[in-house]
Amino acid sequence: INPNNLKLTISAASAKQYPDTDIPEIALAGRSNVGKSSFINTLLNRKNFARTSSSPGKTQLLNFYNVDSKVHLVDVPGYGYARVSKKEREKFGKMIEEYLTTAPNLKAVLALVDLRHEPSEDDKLMYTFLKFYDIPVILVATKADKIPRGKWNKHVSVIKKALQFDSTDDFVIFSSFDKTGIDEAWTAIEQYV
Ligand code: GDP
């Protein structure tokens, strides 16, 4: 997969706009501010392709990034904004749910959590949801540069335990700041495309 051969296929507001292709899709999910945009930009070797932290209240879209016509990385809006109204959150949850449960080309989800912290309730909900629907997960623990290497294993254990991590899923330790985990992330993605 050549990450430089890149285009935004569509920013979809609803299911009828999802692209009608058979290119495999890998979605990205994570709490707002987890480092999802930075992850996409790092993976795709771009500075500002995925825009960082779309603010609450803005239209929530699913962005389909076509990478080398081999995979669509599907950027799902970040969850867990405290300041968003309950109604908005529900609408947004429905959009994600609709996509994750009906997308015919969805192969796996890159689920992002912060390596520093215990997963949030929303993180746990997302992982449980994905496992309920038998969707393979590539768990990506972000911001690894903030934790000394000697403590990585401990943090990984805490995260796995909190999520009741399925041992058949992949786990990638990642940092956009020092470029840790890019190859591991691509290797994990490539097994599904
Ligand atoms: P998003 O809301 O999930 O798209 O998160 P962003 O990519 O916008 O990042 C949120 C914040 O975390 C920003 O201040 C980033 O600079 C910071 N951040 C993102 N990735 C990393 C990382 O790998 N290491 C560190 N230390 N900070 C990061």
Structural account:
This protein has about 190 residues and is of the alpha/beta class. The chain has a single domain, classed as 3-Layer(aba) Sandwich (Rossmann fold). Helix content is about 30%, strand content about 20%. The protein contains 5 helices and 7 strands; from the N terminus they run ββαββαβαβαβα. The chain has helices at about 35-45, 85-100, 120-130, 150-165, 180-190; strands at about 5-10, 25-30, 60-65, 70-75, 105-115, 135-140, 170-175. A 7-stranded mixed β-sheet has the order 1-3-4-2-5-6-7, sandwiched between helices. A hairpin with a 3-residue loop joins strand 3 (about 60-65) and strand 4. The longest helix is centred in the middle third of the chain and has 17 residues, at about 85-100. The radius of gyration is 16 Å and the shape is globular. The mean pLDDT is about 90. The structure holds guanosine-5'-diphosphate (GDP). Guanosine-5'-diphosphate binds near residues 32, 34, 36, 53 and 177.
